[in-house]
């Protein structure tokens, strides 16, 4: 039988602690609130009461429900009063020594079968439990802010945690309306681990001068579907929070190249360009709102002044595509506006050479296709063309061919039909300098590859990884299902080419991805169980 939690104690009544208290009280659990700072627990309860009354006024709760929830919240001023609680959840400062001292105190107060949980986001559960007499009852229970809205919680057993504690917290998570996912006690657990690829790869792209941070944000937000661009997200979270986490995960994994931070955020941290909270990070802010017309913090290229309303009637386009489906889409797009398609085996000297490629720069692709690099412009087919387009000339592409490509695919063009709207599309395009792989390809492939690697390490099940990353980070897809959606072979092609051209081990494909792509099976497929 799995123990039913009837009462729990929250130690630390800040934003996270009170968020956990709210969903527990709403689930009918008696909640004791304690904070070492005098008056903090009462202040936290009053603040939550104000929030709950506002929600009641909006019809989220009845007056009877409000009364019941508030009746489940009790402030205590002495730690020993938690003695009868079935579960204690610690939500204090992220400091290992302080947490270890607290857990030592808790053990001297609570009953032998009381579960001791930590809401740590970055510290080892095993390390927190290392000085406890009964480490088997210590477990991670990591929620995300705001707790009431982020319906995911990581359940993290330490190396000595008994399985019954996992069962209790998984059942409790469900009772409180959250999805519990079990994770190994490794740096970053699932969500903070799975989120390492997004920001670090975007920073690397920015550092290479591929384009400016605004365009990177635009590509990934508008073209891929992320809620926020990586630099908007870094500004929101705060460089003083994000960069130390990048360094911590990188160091805890003994300098694994996949997690390599970038010097730019260290420089911004030192220079106190911390983001929205101070009015300046990558963007500038007034009254906590992003200003228009940003001044760049790095010497990346601005968008060139090519015209999008040029005459396209005399343009001829030769198409080279890695995937047949991409060539068909481009042919249909151009045919819809009566653009001439050059069907010769070798492009005519006056034809725009349009290359739909993966994991490669335009120069290497032109050589592979045996076409003139001076005529070549590559286009990213990983993103939805009805929402955003990314174009990449080679370093020697002549201006007239760049201008033609921009006229066909650039900002506010009227070419092609939107399948969603049944009308002429009018979307943005970004011109980038040569990059080994497009912005979206690099970032998305790294997100998927990291999710596969987390699965290979057995940190969590593929399903839990997928749900945790999607719910915890707000990605369009979980990394495993995203790989299936885009095609594992296509993601593998991107990574293999980038790795082959750069030699950078951060791009090496996960064996989990390689095997399933080559067998043409779902990325959710796990190793068959068998007995010897």
Overall morphology: elongated
Backbone CA Rg = 27 Å
Q: Helix/strand/pairing class, anyone?
A: alpha/beta
| Low confidence ranges | 295-300, 415-425
Figure out the total of helices. Answer: 20
Architecture overview:
This protein has 20 helices and 16 strands. The protein is 41% helix and 13% strand. By secondary structure, it is α/β, with parallel strands linked by helices. It is elongated, with a radius of gyration of 27 Å. Helix 16 (439-456) crosses helix 19 (488-502).
Summarize the structure.
The protein is an alpha/beta fold. Helix content is 41%, strand content 13%.
Task: Provide keyphrases for this structure.
532 residues, alpha/beta, eight-stranded mixed sheet
Fold topology:
Elements: E1 7-11, H1 15-26, E2 30-34, H2 40-57, H3 63-71, E3 73-75, E4 87-90, H4 96-107, E5 115-118, H5 125-129, E6 138-143, E7 152-157, H6 163-175, E8 179-182, H7 191-194, H8 196-207, H9 213-224, H10 230-237, H11 239-252, H12 263-270, E9 285-286, E10 289-290, E11 316-321, H13 324-335, E12 340-341, E13 352-356, H14 362-369, E14 376-379, E15 388-393, H15 399-409, E16 428-431, H16 439-456, H17 462-473, H18 479-486, H19 488-502, H20 511-519
Helix pairs in contact: 8-10, 8-16, 9-16, 16-18, 16-19
């Amino acid at each position: 039988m799995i123990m039913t939690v009837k009462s729990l104690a929250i130690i630390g009544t800040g934003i996270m602690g009170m968020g956990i208290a709210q969903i527990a009280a709403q689930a009918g659990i008696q909640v004791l609130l304690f904070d070492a700072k005098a008056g903090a627990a009462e202040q936290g309860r009053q603040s939550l009461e104000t929030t709950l009354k506002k929600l009641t006024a909006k019809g989220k709760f009845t007056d009877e429900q409000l009364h019941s929830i508030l009746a489940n919240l009790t402030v205590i001023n002495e730690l020993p009063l938690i003695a009868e609680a079935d579960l204690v959840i610690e939500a204090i400062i992220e400091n290992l020594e302080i947490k270890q001292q607290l857990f030592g105190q808790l053990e001297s107060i609570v009953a032998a079968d009381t579960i001791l949980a930590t809401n740590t986001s970055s510290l080892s559960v095993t390390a927190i439990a290392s000085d406890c007499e009964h480490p088997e009852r210590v477990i991670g229970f990591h929620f995300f802010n705001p707790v009431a809205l982020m319906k995911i919680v990581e359940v993290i057993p330490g190396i000595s945690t008994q399985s019954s504690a996992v069962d209790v917290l998984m059942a409790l998570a469900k009772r409180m309306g959250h999805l519990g996912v079990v994770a190994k006690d490794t740096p970053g657990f699932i969500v903070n681990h799975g989120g390492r690829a997004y920001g670090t790869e975007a920073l690397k792209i920015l550092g290479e001068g591929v384009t400016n941070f605004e365009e990177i944000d635009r590509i990934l937000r508008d073209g891929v579907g992320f809620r926020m661009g990586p630099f908007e997200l870094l500004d929101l979270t705060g460089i003083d929070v994000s960069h130390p986490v990048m360094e911590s995960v990188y160091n805890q994994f003994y300098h694994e190249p996949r997690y390599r931070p970038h010097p730019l955020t260290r420089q911004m941290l030192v220079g106190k360009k911390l983001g929205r909270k101070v009015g300046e990070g990558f963007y500038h802010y007034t009254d906590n709102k992003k200003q228009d017309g940003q001044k760049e913090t790095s010497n990346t290229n601005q968008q060139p002044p090519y015209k999008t309303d040029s005459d396209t009637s005399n343009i001829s386009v030769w198409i080279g595509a890695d995937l047949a489906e991409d060539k068909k889409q481009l042919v249909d797009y151009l045919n819809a506006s009566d653009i001439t398609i050059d069907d010769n085996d070798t492009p005519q000297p006056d034809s725009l050479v349009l290359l739909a490629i993966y994991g490669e720069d335009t120069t290497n692709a032109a050589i592979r296709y045996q076409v003139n690099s001076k005529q070549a412009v590559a286009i990213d087919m990983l993103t939805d063309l009805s929402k955003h387009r990314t174009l990449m000339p080679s370093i020697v592409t002549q201006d007239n061919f760049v201008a033609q490509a921009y006229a066909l695919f650039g900002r506010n063009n009227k070419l092609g039909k939107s399948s969603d709207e049944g009308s002429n599309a009018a979307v943005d395009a970004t011109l980038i300098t040569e990059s080994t792989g497009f912005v979206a390809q690099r970032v998305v492939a790294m997100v998927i590859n990291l999710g596969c690697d987390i699965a290979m390490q057995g940190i969590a099940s593929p399903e839990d990884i997928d749900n945790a990353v999607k719910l915890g980070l707000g990605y369009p897809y979980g990394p495993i299902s995203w790989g299936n959606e885009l095609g594992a072979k296509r993601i593998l092609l991107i990574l293999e080419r980038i790795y082959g051209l750069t030699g950078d081990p951060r791009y090496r494909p996960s064996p989990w991805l390689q095997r399933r792509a080559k067998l043409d099976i779902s990325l959710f497929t796990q190793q068959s169980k068998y007995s010897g």
